Structures are given as C-alpha cells and as structure tokens.
Amino acid sequence: MTLTTLLLFIPACFALNMAPGPNNLLSLTNAKRYDIKTACLAGIGRLIAFVGMITLAATGLATVLYTSETIFLVIKTLGGLYLLWLAYQLWSARTEAQSADEASQKSLFGLAWQEFWLAAGNPKAILIFTAFLPQFVEPDGNVVQQFMVLGALFLLLEWVAIAGYAYAGSFLGNWFSQPKRRQLFNRLCAGLLASAGIGLLLAKKE
User: Fold this and answer.
1) What is the pTM of this model?
2) Axis crossing angle, helix 179-202 with helix 69-91, rounded to the nearest 10
3) What is the DSSP letter of 137?
4) 3-state DSSP assignment of residue 204
C-alpha cells in the first residue's frame, strides 16, 4: 500500500464517517441528554460492531453475508424496526429538567448497546467494508494486513466523528435549555431516525 493510496483513502473515508447517519445522530442526542464524555464512551459500542464487520470483510465472509437475500432481509428488517423504536422513545421522552440523581441512573452500558445494535443492524455498513475498503487494497500485497490498516484508520476517523457530533450535541443541549426547545429537538431527531428506519425497511439490495 502506497502513501498516495492512504492520502486518497483518508479524506474519502472521513467523508463517510462524518455523514449524518443514525449512529452519528444518536451520538448527538446522547451528548445533548447527558454529556460529551458519555456520548463518546457510548460510541465504543459502534466501534466494536465495526471491528466485527472489518474482520468479516478481511476474511471474505462479509461478501457471502451481503449476497444472501435472506440475511440481508433479516438484518435490514431488524435494523429498521430498531430505528423506529428509538424514534418512538425519543419522541415520547420527558422534557422536564432532570435532576443529577435521575441522570446518574442512566446506564452507560445500555447506551453503548444501543450504538452497537444500531451499527450492526444496518446492512449498508457491511457494504462500506465490502465495496469501499477493497478499492484501496493492493491485490499483490498482503490483503488481510492492508484491510487491518485501513480498518484501523476507519475506526480512528469514526472516533473523531463521534467526538465531533458529541461536541455539537453538547452545544445544542445548552441552546435547547427550555423544555419546549428540548421537545422540538427530540422530535426533530425522532423524525430523522424514523425516516432512516423507514428508508432501511424499503431498501433493496443492489
């Protein structure tokens, strides 16, 4: 793998990382509802899901999974329904100011679990690792090693995206300090999550 290849990969990859998808929207919401640190730590769940996908792509198993109509249908259905469930929870969330005790009762593990399943339940994420990453792999070299290098860079840039959306969510949390503003923000995010869920349910494998 040449330096030129890496210099082409990094900006293209970062554009994918920064795209306003469901996981980034979840980081934005978590930072608004809790804090930046919580949102960033919860994002580890997403990274774990991506590590599994990168490993599958490196071994060639992801191609088999993605070409299966049945598996694609199951993954997209579960992912779409989960997005709709998250949208419902956000739409009906309380907007009154929470006390410190209420906030401390929220489980970081639960938030990370949400991030994990949101990433794992999106079949389009598999396509990123089966169609995007291989474009930057030199077939004459060690393919597995190159996948791991590109995968590590992807995860690093994804972490930057998580932090970026968390900081944005923290700013919005201060901006929407009044209950009516928080309700507006929650329902806007819920609408976007629901739209993503419906889009996923209607998606067809190309």
Assistant:
1) 0.72
2) 170
3) -
4) coil
